[in-house]
Design brief:
alpha+beta
Length: 375
């Protein structure tokens, strides 16, 4: 019998007593693997639900209530329940079963929270912002570079509830990795919380490395021979995407510091050393983002300076040609006044002489401007 199959009904019930009805319904359902990275194939918000003891899966029992009672009766092991974008109705029965605080439940369902760590009695509630790099063939002024999601984690003495929002940040591979390391998983719910935090922060580092490649490409284009013609919209787009990444990464520093240093009942002191390592990685990602932001500012300033220089060069060329053209304009303007007594007006060689003077003057100005780099 599949406990995960029963959860389709559990997530739709508001009273724990009604959960007993699920056991009878489960007998008519085939076994289904709910480790899919997105939604449950049963159509509910449940992705997976497994009970562990000493780091090894144990039989789940008839339903979620039985699994929780067995774990609490034996006073060892825990239940790991994974959800993906649950509704209020789907989460109501679970919240009542595990005695979750209403404020934390509201945050878990509504999402769009800042990374944080809160304690409600014996339960920890942590929020992590997940990020992924959006692949693109060419960076444009409208390219999406970073996509974000959220993972909320409820941690108690004998349970872990993960609530994921967004189409990325799957915890399936992470669960498989933990199950392959029974010694680490035997340390309880705190080990799962650490694995999730480590997984999220590792994604930060991967995304920053990918963003660096985009920044390097923009930098190369800006300092190319025709860099003044580069699209500044790409730089602004990168800065906007970098700001979104910063909002996901930077606020996580304080929660990780609390997990690594402050005594928390559900966090084993041995696990806190692992959180210090995650905090160091998060600090590295934060410093990289800050450095990228400063680099983009420098690239933008360099691009604007290049545009200004290019405009000055264009103005010098225009001014030089205007000076060359001014000579014949002035001479022709003088001799176009049609006065009777003008110098050389009746002379046979007057016209060739004026044309020669104009040509010599224009050629002299042209060579002078060319020598000084104006043309």
């Amino acid at each position: 019998m599949s406990m995960a199959g029963n959860l389709r009904k559990v997530t739709g019930l508001g009273r724990v007593g009604d959960l007993r009805k699920v056991a009878r319904l489960a007998r008519r359902r085939p076994l289904v693997d709910l480790s899919h990275h997105a939604r449950s194939p049963l159509g509910s918000a449940v992705v997976n639900c497994v009970a562990y003891a000493d780091g090894v899966r144990i039989p789940a029992g008839r339903d979620l209530v039985d699994a929780v009672r067995r774990v609490r009766k034996s006073d060892e092991g825990f239940v790991w329940l994974g959800l993906h974008e649950p509704t209020d109705e789907e989460f109501a029965g679970i919240a009542q079963l595990f005695d979750l605080h209403p404020l934390a439940v509201e945050d878990a369902v509504d999402a769009h929270q800042r990374p944080k760590l809160e304690r409600y009695g014996e339960t920890l509630f942590a929020v992590f912002k997940t990020v992924c790099y959006v692949e693109h063939t060419e960076l444009t002024a409208t390219s999406e570079v970073v996509n974000t999601g959220e993972i909320m984690v409820f941690v108690g003495q004998d349970f872990v509830i993960t609530v994921r929002h967004g189409r990325h940040g799957s915890l399936g591979p992470l669960r498989e990795g933990l199950e392959a390391d029974a010694r680490q998983l035997a340390k309880g719910p705190a080990a799962v919380l650490h694995a999730i935090a480590d997984h999220v922060v590792d994604d930060y580092l991967q995304v920053t490395d990918a963003v660096q490649a985009d920044i390097d490409q923009v930098e190369t284009d800006v300092f190319a021979a025709d860099g003044a013609r580069a699209d500044p919209g790409r730089i602004y787009q990168l800065k906007r995407e970098l700001l979104e990444l910063k909002r996901a990464v930077a606020p996580l520093h304080r929660p990780l510091q609390e997990l690594a240093t402050r005594p928390i009942r559900v966090i084993d002191p041995e696990i806190q050393a692992y959180f210090r390592d995650v905090s160091d990685h998060q600090l590295r990602a934060t410093e990289q983002i800050a450095a990228f932001d400063e680099l983009l500012n420098s690239i933008l300033q360099a691009h604007l300076a290049q545009v200004t220089v290019a405009q000055n060069e264009d103005m010098r060329r225009i001014t030089a040609w205007a000076a060359v053209i001014a000579v014949p304009t002035m001479v022709c303007g003088v001799y176009g006044m049609n006065f009777d007594h003008m110098p050389e007006l009746r002379w046979q060689f007057g016209y060739p002489l004026v044309i020669g003077l104009i040509s010599v003057a224009c050629l002299t100005l042209y060579r002078s401007f060319r020598r000084n780099g104006w043309l």
